[in-house]
Amino acid sequence: MRTGNAPDRLARWTGRLFAPPVLPVAAGCALSWRAASPGWGITAAGCAALAAMAIGLGVRRGWWSDWELSRRAERPLPLALATAGALVVWLASWWLGAPRELLVPAALAPLGGAAFMLCTRRGKVSLHTSAAAGGVALLSIEVSGWCAVVGVPLLALVAWSRVRIGAHTGRQVWAGGALGAGLTAVVLWLAR
């Protein structure tokens, strides 16, 4: 990883500020606010915070080398736990009567986790760009196409940052973006 100059610092901070749960949780909160059900968005944000704390605990205890799970061999367990947690949250939300317009996009968390685990078995794909592309696609489809005006440049910044710090190749960020946006579009299309 490069360090020191302004572009490198920007790349590191971009990766931290737009860590995988950030954009999808923000998109979910925006959708829940739009559906006049802000409590569901707050619940999702809390669950994402728990997942982040679990990763932090794993890093502190030496289970994983870093917050970004940059070593492919370290990814299966935390991804499986995050996916299982997302499924439990989705099932609880369904059981407690969350509105359909929130359940459909919320299904993207466990589905995305499962898809990402399958991709990780064969190679390394950028979870940062997958999550960012999914969040941008979700807001662009469900809220307004204008969300893409802000979201696509933000997605490009996230992808650049992952390549700049040496965490991923260009192919890996493109694959992550295609996975996130594609899965989101397909799930939302099938649910209509």
Short description:
The chain is an all-alpha fold and 192 residues long.
Give a written overview of the molecule.
This protein has nine helices and no strands. The radius of gyration is 16 Å and the shape is globular. The N and C termini lie far apart (44 Å). It is mainly α and 192 residues long. The protein has one domain.
Count the domains: 1
Task: Please work out how many helical segments DSSP would assign.
Answer: 9
Tell me the span between the first and last alpha carbons: 44 Å
Can you count the beta strands?
0
- The ordered string of helix (H) and strand (E) elements is HHHHHHHHH
Helix content range: over 70%
Largest sheet: none
Overall 3D shape:
globular
Rounded to the nearest angstrom, the radius of gyration is 16 Å
Q: How much strand content do the residues show?
A: under 5%
Structural class: mainly alpha
Q: Stretches where pLDDT falls below 50 for ≥5 residues?
A: none
What's the mean pLDDT score?
87
Helix-strand blueprint:
Blueprint: H1 6-17, H2 22-34, H3 38-60, H4 76-95, H5 100-106, H6 108-122, H7 127-142, H8 147-164, H9 170-191
Helix pairs in contact: 1-8, 2-3, 2-7, 3-4, 4-6, 6-9, 7-8, 7-9, 8-9
